[in-house]
Amino acid sequence: MKPAWIIAKRELNAYFDSLIAYFIIVLFLSFSGFFTWLAGNGDIFFRKQADLNVFFGVAKWTLFFFIPALTMRQLAEEKKTGTIELLLTKAVTDRQVILGKFLSCFLMVAITLALTLPYYITITYLGKVDHGAIWSGYLGLLLLSAAYISIGLFASSITGNQIVAFLLALSIGIFFQFLFEVIAGGMTGFIGELFSTLSLSMHFESISRGVIDTKDLIYFLSIVVLGLYLSEISISKR
Amino acid sequence: MDILIQHLNKSYGPQKAVDDISFEVKTGEILGFLGPNGAGKTTTMKMITGYLPMDLGDVLIGGQSVKTGALKKQIGYLPENNPLYLDMPVMDYLAFCAAIQGVPQSAIANRVLDMVQVCGLGAEKHKRIRELSKGYRQRVGLAQAMIHDPAVLILDEPTTGLDPNQIVEIRELIRKLGQEKTVILSTHILPEVEATCDRILIINKGKIVADGAPATLRKQAQGRQVLQIRLEDAGVEDARQALANLPGVSAVEISNPDELRFDVQSHPEHLSNREIFELCVQRHWILAEMIPLETKLEDVFRDLTVN
């Protein structure tokens, strides 16, 4: 697993070197900060509850858009410039390359989310906080990010064009984020159940309410494993 | 480590890129891979590195198949077009390559400095690769291929984009490395193969059409000796007649009557230098010049690859 870690470190350095990292962090904090604390209607002061549900709801959407921007470059650019050939002829397996790329994006998101911990500290001064719910909310965000990263990597692995990779990741993501839930709402019986199970938002909400169910964990991990597996297959075709 | 290539086949759709190629490269040998564009050089090299899967056949390095992927650490590869991470500084990039090739953490810094020195990157080592000229990028490409001290070097057109001085330096470097490593390099610059390679392999349309040392190949294609001579104190027609009557000579051509220049072709497997000299002594002609005309590698290449 060492090669995967070496790749992850390089990718992470590349984010911080090219200022993409700072740009993403600043934008993410501005969006989530504004809606959590300043938006007026619907913010924490309006709700008068010492929890971070507002933040989790906003972060769910911000990450939905930001993660494809992080992942689009990962494999598409390497394919376009040909560096993928150099990378894959080094002493690494296809799987280690994919894992390394995944890890770098995941760490990038984790660093961004870690910078919102002052929100948590702030609300502990504002009222009685359900600490378990906060931590499981963060866990939910990390799981959701992992799922979208693996979808984004898959999108990036099947094209040499970053814009295509970005849009493709969004269009796959929108089903999990939103459309499966809508479809499930219009159906009854088994099909309704099925789509409601597929909906990422449903699983995310139950975790962000503080209920950590193995079913939800398995759901997120399945998306991650499937996405990474398909990416691996995609780069092994050459 | 010896490289053994057995019945290698690769098709892209209906087009056969590599058609049943077999050859062997011994340790300490520098093999020049020649061929016109689209002959299958790059495809073959990609299969040797294990990047492209082969349809049929196998590549054994030191007796082990590249299909297992376990040999990657033994191979240094410089791809065509030299793709690099342009945003990275040279030193960081080389350190990354060393780490990923399994060079121990404690040895990485030294290896990087070695490579910077060997490839003449000293003045550029802190720049980002994007800022380097093509020649320096090529050096970075060579440095990353050699950073883990591999037993086998696969270099796809290593001297493209280099200026004449750099080409000489890189050739010397490859020659030096070739003493203990196995090197396969592709190129279509013919003087380059003559200068660097012990052996040449010419492929055309996916098949091997010639295999041997540069001198052997030239001799094979040549067959018969051609001498260019210049005489003094002789009559044109008289000299032509006398030369043509020599037993070893098959044809005489007057290339410049005013200067008394002749192209004398010998019978196959026959050298006529001695006969010509003796004729001149006999007739009291001055033999002012006698130059053996060599078939150039360019001619060999053209003969074999144009049909």
Q: Name the helicity range of chain B.
A: 25-40%
Helix-strand makeup class of chain A: mainly alpha
Oligomer: heterodimer
Which fold name is given in CATH as the topology of the largest domain in chain B? Answer: Rossmann fold
By CATH's scheme, which homologous superfamily of the largest domain in chain B applies?
P-loop containing nucleotide triphosphate hydrolases
Structural class of chain B: alpha/beta
Described by the principal axes of the CA atoms, the overall outline of chain B is: elongated
Give me the side-by-side strand order of the main sheet of chain B: 6-7-8-3-9-10
* SSE series of chain A: HHHHHHHHHHHH
Count of structural domains of chain A: 1
Q: What is the straight-line distance between the termini of chain A?
A: 24 Å
Low-confidence stretches of chain A: none
> How many domain modules of chain B?
2
Average of pLDDT of chain B: 86
What is the CATH-assigned architecture of the largest domain in chain B?
Answer: 3-Layer(aba) Sandwich
Task: Tally the beta strands of chain A.
Answer: 0
Beta-strand level of the residues of chain B, as a percent range? 25-35%
**Tally of helical segments of chain B:** 10
**Fraction in beta strands of chain A:** under 5%
Summarize the helices and strands and which ones pair or pack.
The complex is a heterodimer of chains A (238) and B (307).
Chain A: H1 2-17, H2 20-38, H3 44-47, H4 53-81, H5 83-88, H6 94-114, H7 117-126, H8 131-157, H9 162-186, H10 189-198, H11 200-208, H12 214-236
Chain B: E1 3-12, E2 15-25, E3 30-34, H1 41-48, E4 56-61, E5 64-65, E6 75-78, H2 90-100, H3 105-118, H4 134-146, E7 152-156, H5 164-178, E8 182-186, H6 190-196, E9 199-204, E10 207-212, H7 214-222, E11 226-232, H8 236-244, E12 249-256, E13 261-266, H9 273-283, E14 286-293, H10 297-305
Parallel strand pairs in B: 3-8, 3-9, 6-7, 7-8
Antiparallel strand pairs in B: 1-2, 1-4, 4-5, 9-10, 11-13, 11-14, 12-13
Helix pairs in contact in B: 2-3, 3-4, 7-10
